[in-house]
């Protein structure tokens, strides 16, 4: 598994569904470069069980992300048409109707491979014919990308394990706190808590509450 923290987020141009209804042929995270923080998360597949709970959970707190100058972007290996159909399906029928943030279609698997979250890989059989081993779906990877396009946080869950949206918001708060104040955040830090500063003798001390 690649560690992308501290590196430029892999660049891509791919189809995506915007505003729950519009298919954009050439969408890129670079649209937000220099303007917004980005939470870019992968999920395994449309029309499944855990995935809609996550997509709805992010939508329910979309205002909290917007208040933090952050956009949310999802991605799976399904096609844009599959995304569009799922977005038209009511929540009561297992759909994600009402989700407004972009959903990227990684049907060629190249984005999942670039972010190293693909559950399978290409190989060759005994006759040197190309084959795909494993599942052509993404693990539940999530990447927090700053305004300069640098990955500052990543986490990857196995497919059965849903993520915590509140934890994503906490990490955004921590990143923005360190950028603003130049301090570091101790374990279980939350917005409003004290930060830490390292002294020249190597002793970390608490600062006043921000």
From TrEMBL:
Its EC number is 1.11.1.15. The keyword Oxidoreductase applies. It comes from bioreactor metagenome. SUPFAM superfamilies: Thioredoxin-like. GO terms for cellular component: cytosol. It is an enzyme of class 1 (oxidoreductase). GO terms for biological process: cell redox homeostasis; cellular response to stress; hydrogen peroxide catabolic process; response to oxidative stress. It is found in: Cytoplasm. The keyword Cytoplasm applies. GO terms for molecular function: thioredoxin peroxidase activity. Residues 3-177 form the Thioredoxin domain. This is Alkyl hydroperoxide reductase C. Keywords: Cytoplasm, Disulfide bond, Oxidoreductase, Peroxidase, Redox-active center. InterPro entries: AhpC/TSA, Peroxiredoxin, Peroxiredoxin_AhpC-typ, Peroxiredoxin_C, Thioredoxin-like_sf, Thioredoxin_domain. The lineage of its organism: unclassified sequences, metagenomes, ecological metagenomes. Pfam families: 1-cysPrx_C, AhpC-TSA. Belongs to the peroxiredoxin family. AhpC/Prx1 subfamily.
């Amino acid at each position: 598994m690649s560690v992308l923290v501290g590196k430029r987020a892999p660049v891509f141009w791919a189809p995506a569904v915007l505003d729950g209804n519009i298919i954009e042929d050439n969408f890129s995270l670079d649209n937000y470069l220099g303007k917004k923080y980005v939470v870019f998360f992968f999920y395994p597949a449309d029309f499944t069980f855990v995935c809609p709970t996550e997509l709805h959970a992010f939508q329910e707190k979309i205002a909290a992300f917007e208040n933090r100058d952050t956009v949310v972007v999802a991605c799976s290996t399904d096609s844009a048409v599959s995304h569009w159909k799922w977005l038209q399906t009511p929540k009561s029928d297992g759909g994600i109707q009402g989700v407004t943030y972009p959903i990227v279609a990684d049907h060629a698997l190249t984005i999942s491979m670039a972010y190293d979250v693909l559950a399978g890989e290409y190989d060759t059989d005994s006759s040197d014919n190309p084959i795909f081993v494993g599942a052509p779906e993404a693990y539940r990877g999530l990447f927090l990308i700053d305004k300069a396009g640098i990955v500052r946080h990543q986490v990857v869950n196995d497919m059965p394990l849903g993520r915590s949206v509140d934890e994503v918001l906490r990490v955004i708060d921590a990143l923005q706190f360190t950028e603003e104040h130049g301090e570091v955040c101790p374990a279980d830090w939350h917005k409003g808590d004290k930060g830490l500063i390292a002294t020249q003798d190597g002793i970390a001390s608490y600062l006043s509450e921000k």
